[in-house]
Design goal:
The protein is of the alpha/beta class and 152 residues long. The chain has one domain. Helix content is 32%, strand content 19%. The chain contains six helices and eight strands. The protein has a four-stranded parallel sheet with strand order 2-1-5-8, with helices on both faces. The chain has a two-stranded antiparallel sheet with strand order 3-4. α1 links the parallel β1 and β2. α4 crosses α5. The chain is globular and about 40 Å long.
Length: 152
C-alpha cells in the first residue's frame, strides 16, 4: 500500500498557528501504524508555533506560485517566502515517500484543497487551493481535504 502524506495537525501534532491541532483519530491511527507520514508545511517553511494567522491575498495558492498573490499574516507581515519554502519541503517529502495520496487541512493557506480563507481575516472562505496543495497538484499528486478522507 502506498504511503499517505498528511497534515501533522490532523495527526494531533500541535503545529497550528495557535499552538493547537485538528486531530482526526483515523489519521492519527494511520500515522501510528506507519502507513501515513505527517508534515506541516508552515513549520517546514520556518514559521514558529504559535504564530499570527495568515491568509492569501490576491488569489489562491496557484496565484502565489505564479507571483500574482501574497501570503500575509494578521499583523500585515508578508510571509510568502516561508509558505513557498514549506510547499517545496512538503513536495520533497511526498516524492521521498512516494505518496499515493495526500490528505491536508482544509481552509489553510498552505493545505486547503478546495477552500481557503479569503485574505480578509473575517472567517470568509473562497474556492481555491492553498500554496502547498497547488504545488503538489502541479506535480501530479492527488490531494484531498480531511472531510473527503473521513467520508470515504
Amino acid at each position: 500500500m502506498d504511503k499517505i502524506l498528511v497534515s501533522a495537525c490532523l495527526a494531533g501534532q500541535k503545529c497550528k498557528y495557535n499552538d493547537g491541532h485538528n486531530l482526526v483519530p483515523a489519521i492519527a491511527e494511520l500515522v501510528r501504524q506507519g502507513r501515513a507520514v505527517p508534515v506541516c508545511p508552515e513549520t517546514l517553511g520556518g514559521l514558529p508555533t504559535p504564530r499570527p494567522p495568515a491568509e492569501i491575498r490576491g488569489g489562491d495558492g496557484r496565484d502565489v506560485l505564479a507571483g500574482r498573490a501574497r501570503v500575509v499574516d494578521r499583523e500585515g507581515r508578508d510571509v510568502t517566502a516561508a509558505f513557498l519554502r514549506g510547499a517545496q519541503a512538503t513536495l520533497a517529502k511526498a516524492q521521498e515517500i512516494g505518496a499515493g495520496l495526500v490528505v491536508l487541512k482544509e481552509k489553510s493557506p498552505s493545505c486547503g484543497s478546495g477552500l481557503i480563507y479569503d485574505g480578509t481575516f473575517s472567517g470568509t472562505t473562497r474556492p481555491g487551493p492553498g500554496v502547498t496543495v497547488a504545488l503538489l497538484r502541479e506535480q501530479g499528486f492527488k490531494v484531498i481535504g480531511e472531510g473527503d478522507f473521513t467520508s470515504s
